[in-house]
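go over this record:
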Amino acid sequence: MSINWLLNTKKSVSVFIDFVRNASKKTGGSTRNTNCKVRPKHRGWKVQDGHIVPAGKILATQRTTRFHPGLNVGFGRNGTLFAMEAGKVVVTCEKFEPNWDHTWVQRCYAGRTNQNIFKKYYNVIPEPQHNRFKLIDEV
């Protein structure tokens, strides 16, 4: 066998055979922190004790019931407390007497039967009216 025979072989002129496509990206490895761009929810109390609020103002946002609605305060579906009337915000810490017959109360307050349980309540005290009404008879 001569070496000339190996050198005289013709190259292929086909475009499809000469075109080789390489990978444009490396293979992706696994990672554990894929969703690290979670924005904070900013939950907690929004209005402090003694502030004047309009009707509909959000007083506190919460995931679990840390704060409870009191006088003129509404409780949203997601636990948000909001003012139902305009007035002054008063936060009180009141004694709570649970019904010990319920299984839910027994599970949540297990071991606290002889202790005082206190809860924080948001109240909105409405502003007094202006007392400038005129009766129809006097007009």
About this structure: The CA atoms of residues 44 and 81 lie 10 Å apart.
